[in-house]
Design brief:
The structure is a homodimer of 219-residue chains. By secondary structure, chain A is an alpha+beta fold. Chain A is 45% helix and 21% strand. Chain A binds a DNA duplex (30 and 30 nucleotides) through helix 7.
Chain lengths: 219, 219
DNA sequence: GAAAGCTATGTGACGTGGTCACACAGACGC
DNA sequence: GCGTCTGTGTGACCACGTCACATAGCTTTC
């Protein structure tokens, strides 16, 4: 009780949940690990402790689109879907950084759901959050131009130095378009003076211009 | 105990859940009623008893896309999102037929979540199902051609007589495209002999041709 | 440190899809 | 019969996705 257990890193859990979860050993996976891929059977419920995992939907042509990102304390909804519906994974999860996580086996998961209000809130909350962001994604993909989504991406993911360190291919995946389109759009945005770009970096020159692009197609 | 209560129409509920739910009065709404629209506050958790409700996402240009359809026994996930996350609705739900439903107020909803495993399963199941279908939707809009989605729609929604009674505008909404595109695609499909179409009706002429169109862009 | 190889990027051509602005036709009321 | 409404057809145009390359910048290897 005096030394730190891994469950301390998960917010909002109650005592019985912690007791059960502390019997599980967290695992560590290196950057680039594919945690699961389409068609694979579900092993259990996954809670992230640290690191960053991206979940992508993969198209037949190899093009893929970022469904959501899993941050520490959050869980991977894909696994829940499988546990509740019995279906296999339809998306692929990749560790973008070194990641630590706990895998909660199927039966422990259900026991916790019944016994721990805190765990229920955790699972429900994760569900609601993902659902919300997936609806946002559908809205973006079907109603916003590539330019607006790209501008939003640049603003969202850029560091405090006003730089975004991503390749065009990564950006394309993140907003669900093709690499070539990113190339052309970046050129256009560079011509208009709102950004500059070179190999692997985009530099923000005019924040307000980017903001206008985002608003432009949003309403 | 001898006469039928409305909760009998909801499968998988246990005794405590039924007892609580039977204190609520189901309501009936006519066809065309808008149950909620973007920005509205969440009133409670909604369970359908009979009828058909469609939930659409609405774009800035008036174009809209069908997120999912709520069938009897199912619940509307939008409301759950609001209850759990506190956010307002971002989509619009319309009764496509006369519909009967129960509205479970916020506090009753949470009481049930804690007390009834059956209710939990109901809510979780609905969640998982919607999530799955939303992922399917994302996959469809971003990786399938309009032609493939249209073919799938015609096969899915047509009656046993091989006819689909929908206007082009309705089809456009259902698969998330514009009306004009439907018009052109239907023409093309009619030229190739797979369907015939007139005002408000599409008649299937060659089922296997349509199936090939669906497969064509799926893999 | 030059050759070889890989990764990131630029570009033209082409087809599909979405938008706009109409024209037109069948259905319905009065 | 005359408007009106709703559903449909069409041409022009632009944004987007795909294919097939060309090029440029890093890295590895000997």
């Amino acid at each position: 009780m005096s030394w730190t257990k891994h469950t301390d890193e998960i917010a909002g859990l109650d005592a019985p949940a912690r007791a059960l979860l502390d019997t599980l050993t967290p695992m560590e996976v290196p950057k680039g690990t594919i945690l699961f891929c389409p068609g694979e059977a579900v092993k259990g419920y996954v809670v992230m402790l640290s690191g960053q995992v991206d979940v992508n939907l993969i198209g037949p042509n190899g093009r893929d689109i970022l469904l959501y990102r899993v941050a520490p304390g959050q869980s991977c909804i894909q696994s829940t879907l499988g546990l509740l519906g019995g279906d296999a994974y339809t998306a692929e999860a990749t560790a973008e950084t070194l990641a630590r996580l706990v895998l909660i086996p199927r039966d422990v998961f259900f026991a916790l759901l019944d016994s721990s209000p805190g765990f229920r809130r955790l699972v429900f909350g994760a569900f609601a959050e993902r659902m919300q962001s997936m609806m946002q994604l559908i809205e973006n993909v079907s109603f916003m131009t590539v330019e607006a989504r790209l501008a939003a991406l640049i603003l969202d993911r850029s560091g405090p130095d006003g730089c975004l360190h991503m390749t065009q291919a990564e950006m394309a995946t993140a907003i669900g378009t093709a690499r070539e389109v990113i190339s052309r759009r970046l050129d256009k945005m560079a011509q208009s003076g709102s950004v500059a770009h070179e190999r692997g970096v985009v530099i923000i020159l005019d924040r307000s211009a980017l903001n206008e692009l985002v608003q432009g197609a949003a309403f």
